[in-house]
Specification:
Blueprint: E1 9-10, H1 13-33, E2 40-46, H2 50-66, E3 69-75, H3 81-93, E4 99-102, H4 112-118, H5 130-134, H6 146-157, E5 166-170, H7 177-186, E6 191-195, H8 202-206, E7 211-214, E8 231-235, E9 239-242, E10 250-253, H9 258-261, E11 265-268, H10 275-295
Parallel strand pairs: 1-11, 2-3, 2-4, 5-6, 5-7, 7-8, 8-11
Antiparallel strand pairs: 9-10
Helix pairs in contact: 1-10, 6-7, 6-10
Amino acid sequence: MHDVRTTYTLMDGRKVAAEIKSEIAAQVLKRRDAGKKIPHLAIILVGDDGASQTYVDHKVKACKEVGFHYTLMRFADTISEERLLKHIDQVNTDPDVDGFIVQLPLPPHISVEVITEHIRPEKDVDGFTNRNFGSIVSKNPLLLPATPNGIMELLKRYQIHTQSKHCVVVGASRLVGAPLSMMLAEQGRATVTVCHKYTQNLAHHTRQADILVVAVGKPGLITGDMVKEGAIVIDVGTTRVEGPQYKNGYTLKGDVDFASVAPRCAYITPVPGGVGPMTIAALLLNTLRATELSHG
């Protein structure tokens, strides 16, 4: 029987994101005082998916908080891929727009890959294009993928060192797991194990993690017996679980069973309020960087 820790540190993504936004707002004021370009983020939203609308609302609110200019473009989910590409062309060539995102998911008849690759890499503040993805392993990355970069920033702000640590990333998606594993190895100098849906005996791998990151979208996948004593656990999963027992008819659950895992951890992120706010903070950092790269 393992000893169980009685205390852990909650990694407050909301608090850290607020600090970052405050720093960005100060930079925007400096730019304004110096007569420099104010960052401008353009957002395309296709359809009326509730979760997407919420995410976009958070991004617009964040732009207002830091003093960015923003443009929100809404289209019906019946828009053709060809028509959407024409709107992207307009934003790509608009000299006033510094950063640009297309909110995912997109309707089934529109290819995410085609749309993503149509965004100019220097405006791709989500960091999804092949060029930005590939630049992770270069000495001078262009715009790093937002969620992984938010996680790296959260670790840094909590003074958690990754060098020589064993990091286990559960989930190998193009959006989170794959780029994060590269960033942990390249910039974090960690030893990285990547697990996914084909991994056998998942618990064998997760128990070896000094730092465990879970990003698969399966509520409660990781339980207390799957985590090493004193581990650092980053829960990226956010799944809407419905039921009459919840006040609003639903709740948001992470991939980690917080009640059984938290007592074994040194540090752990909550859901919500952990990685989510850091993704938006990283998006703002990328938009500021894109403005600096193109306008000094």
